């Protein structure tokens, strides 16, 4: 049962992370253009961190930040549950 929760955690982290990164690149493209998007692709951690906060500040759109950070938190919760089940 613990492996199922850990598998769910990995899926949530990967799918949420990739979807959030694609949305973050969309924010960069909409505001700064294609050249900045190509540069942002190669500096992924900065894009993943700051683009959602820009979207919240500039447009009051919380969707991207919920997807980016919410998937990380939800995946972490599943990983903790998995770890707790293995310790028993």
Q: Strand pairing plus helix content: what structural class? A: mainly alpha
The rounded distance between the terminal residues' Cα atoms is: 12 Å
Biggest sheet architecture: none
How many strands?
0
**Gyration radius from CA atoms, angstroms:** 15 Å
| Helix share, percent | over 70%
H-E string: HHHH
Description:
By secondary structure, this protein is mostly helical. The chain has one domain. Helices cover 92% and strands 0% of the residues. The protein contains 4 helices and no strands. It has helices spanning 2-32, 34-42, 44-59, 63-87. α1 runs antiparallel to α2 (34-42) and α1 (2-32) packs antiparallel against α4 (63-87). It starts with a helix and ends with a helix. The model has no long low-confidence stretch (mean pLDDT 93).
Topology of this protein?
Blueprint: H1 2-32, H2 34-42, H3 44-59, H4 63-87
Provide keyphrases for this structure.
single chain, mainly alpha, 4 helices, elongated
Summarize the structure in short.
The chain is mainly α and 88 residues long. Helix content is 92%, strand content 0%.
